Amino acid sequence: MKRNEGQSLTPMMQQYRELKEQHKEAILFFRLGDFYEMFFEDAIVASQELGLVLTSRESGENAPPMCGVPYHAADGYIARLVAKGYKVAICEQMEDPRLAKGLVRREVVRIITPGTITDDKVLPEKGNNFLAAVVPQGECYGLAWADVSTGEFHVKYCASFLELADELARLNPAECLLPSYWLGKTDIVKRLQTWYSGVFTPWDEGLEPDVGLQLLRERFGSQWQLEAKGEALAACSLLLSYLLATQKNTLPHLKPPSLVEDIAYMALDQATRRNLELFLAGREAGRRGSLLWVLDRTATAMGGRTLKRWLERPLVKLEAIRERQEAVKELVDNFILRQKVEGFLKKVKDLERLAGRVAYGTAGGRELQALRHSLEVVTPLKEALKEAKAPLLKDVTKELDAIPEITDLIARALVEEPPAGVKEGGLIRPGYHPEVDRLREAITHGREWIAELENEERERTGIKSLKVGFNRVFGYYIEVTRPNLSLVPADYERKQTLANAERFITPRLKELEQQVLGAEERLVELEYELFQELRSQVLAVLPRIQATAKALGVLDALYSLASVAAEYNYTCPVVDEGEVIEIRQGRHPMLERVGEGGNFVPNDTFLDCGRQRLHIITGPNMAGKSTYIRQVALIVLLAQVGSFVPASWARIGLVDGIFTRVGAADDLFAGQSTFMVEMREVAYILSRATRRSLIILDEVGRGTSTTDGLSIARAVVEYIHDRIGARTLFATHYHELVELEQYLPGVKNYSVAVREQGKDILFLHTIIPGGTDKSYGIHVARLAGLPEDLIRRAEELLKGIYQEGEKGSGKKVQEGLQEDYRILLRAQGEVLEPEPVTRSPEEQPPKSRRTAIEAEVLKELENYNLFNKTPLEAMQAIFNWQKKLAARKKVVRDEQQLRWWG
Ligand code: ADP
């Protein structure tokens, strides 16, 4: 801009400079007639980013660079800039340029940023676009987030940096506000960026406690309050002040911030969400193959967002889980109701975002009609739900509000298929407003009279080809072709000469024109006024629309879970506060859907916090270990979401969190030491998990050399077993770990059954008790098609190693391991010797699994409190004991089989 300093600017460029000065952080879209123009640096950036041609309004090499986009196509360009992380300030003409005296008044009406975009075309249909704000206070953080397209607003208090980072990774906000002093600390921002890749924006307004509280009270009412610490409140006011400043709108659809409390939800960190492929799956990290992909049958965008939120935050309160379960169960059992619900939901549009557009004043006739059609579904839907018995379905029904006064009004006021724009007329239905009807009549008549006038003039002049036409510049005219000009009467006034015709007007024609054009202009104005009135009436019921949208979202998510459960033959798990996780014929929800179908081998699981608390699952690569342990975690997660589960029967003793870690070789982070990542995440699990948690570890220790890896794996098992006591599945190809069963009372060995047929092996994918002592690596290599010579050489080498081993080095490895473990603990700053574990007699390794089962059943029977059980529960318990006793036989069979396979 230096070039122009000191020179006199045109008044318009002066105006531009002033506006730009107030919005330095944004690219200014400056409205000039039918274009948005950008100047100076903005023009250079935009021309590069959008591939626009740089021009100039003036000539000469120092003329300011500029570029522009037509106003009707601006949305796409804005979206592209915002997607690249830019902010765009929209400057409009605030008065009609034709009527303006002197310079047209212009104002910035909105600043669009990555976190505040509302354009339907770029927003994820069933997802959210969040703006977040973080306010640190010592080691703690307030985190607020909102989606301006739907109006939701939440806040959370994070007790550590890790918790904050994890929450940011979960929400993945498009933009995150930070106080500028904090954003200045580059190391913090760098750390955050390893978790979250969005845009950071410095912002300080609303940080002061008094100012912030006042701002929130002004917006949400003087009664409004939040039971949260100061930094959470500050995050809310920081976010709100940014929204008000950029949106230049009171945001009537924004809900008061609701507090998200961790105690209501299961701990589910980012690594776990990724490992379990909740939302993205496979190497390409696409939706296909993910849990959401299997479960999402939602018919509406609200339902899609609700379901995603449920999967992100499974519940831990029994009552809340059972409430959802009952509703899902009713929809599973009542096929007719489910069908009806589906039929109605399919007609519902994105009410949340429609409400947002009403709030922003960007809803047109089409949006209001979409809103009406969506709300018109509510009455028959409520009727269908009348018979529902599940409390949650009753709640939903109660919340649904058809708002008939609004749907009737829209139906009466608007034509069935309104035009896209709202300022060109054609919106208002005949019969709604007398003046609209009168004007329309005047226009129609005027046009008829003009048509009549054409006939009269043809007769009067005898010119057969005479015709009346219209254009924007001259209005109505009479056109006479050149050969007929001699017949033109004296009262014709010449207006325009064309190559082979002349155009005239007459006083009578002008009179009629006045009537038609005046009426047209007035009509367009009046229709727009009436439309705005209508829109403000819709605005007045916004909270009711939002409540209905929310209820529809819940209903849709329940419907989705029910229809998946019914179609894929899921069962309703028994969820209780016990410590047992028992699954019969469990399946992996995604794998059973992506495979050829029918090939999936189901598996049973029994975990408790006692002697079956830590399963070591061994077996060759590709046998199905990872699939199995993830399947258990997914079933537990689904049960606590309130969903049915892929199993023939399941009992889930509530878990407070699921923690997973997959050994480093599976995922290749570029640039970071994979082993370092692996160990950091294991450390995180060890610090967070409790006795109530479920831990899933897959090949931990694989990222380093064999002896290191083995010792770390073993130390991790011991630590979890002795110190945490969490229910744990530990899959490993280190078959050396099976001996832990002898030392640790809560450890049980399992393996994936494999059948050897000559030189080949067959993976049975069945989990059986007992460990394996073979890794079958060479068999797998053969399966993979390596040359036979190479395989033979490997077998020779292996034989050599085993013979070595027999000469005594095996014992050395054993001693080395114990030493490694001590070193590891020392390095962690832990006590040198593991705490002695007190083992009750019955925790001693049982002589055989058979007696173990018997002892267990007896103990359960002994402790069974008959008096707080229903007859049905008691029957179930007896049934379970019988089942267990029956399983004794299977154990014996398995033992025989094992001997046979071994
Ligand atoms: P591992 O962890 O033991 O190396 P995976 O769990 O990755 O093995 O399983 C390897 C492959 O075996 C999977 O991709 C899947 O195709 C198949 N598989 C695993 N479990 C089952 C099962 N229960 N039923 C059918 N196929 C399975």
From TrEMBL:
Protein residues bound to ATP = G619, P620, N621, M622, A623, G624, K625, S626
Q: Which organism is it from?
A: Thermanaeromonas toyohensis ToBE
Output the Gene Ontology terms for molecular function.
ATP binding; ATP-dependent DNA damage sensor activity; damaged DNA binding; mismatched DNA binding
| Primary role | This protein is involved in the repair of mismatches in DNA. It is possible that it carries out the mismatch recognition step. This protein has a weak ATPase activity.
Listed under GO cellular component are: cytosol
Regarding protein family, the annotation reads: Belongs to the DNA mismatch repair MutS family.
Output the InterPro entries linked to this UniProt entry.
DNA_mismatch_repair_MutS (IPR005748), DNA_mismatch_repair_MutS-lik_N (IPR007695), DNA_mismatch_repair_MutS/MSH (IPR017261), DNA_mismatch_repair_MutS_C (IPR000432), DNA_mismatch_repair_MutS_clamp (IPR007861), DNA_mismatch_repair_MutS_core (IPR007696), DNA_mismatch_repair_MutS_N (IPR016151), DNA_mismatch_repair_MutS_sf (IPR036187)
Q: Which PANTHER family match?
A: DNA MISMATCH REPAIR PROTEIN MSH1, MITOCHONDRIAL, DNA MISMATCH REPAIR PROTEIN MUTS FAMILY MEMBER
Q: Which HAMAP family match?
A: MutS
Domain DNA mismatch repair proteins mutS family residues, every copy: 693-709
Q: Keywords assigned by UniProt?
A: ATP-binding, DNA damage, DNA repair, DNA-binding, Nucleotide-binding
Which CDD domains does the protein's record reference?
A: ABC_MutS1
Name a single GO biological process: mismatch repair
- What is the recorded name of this protein? DNA mismatch repair protein MutS
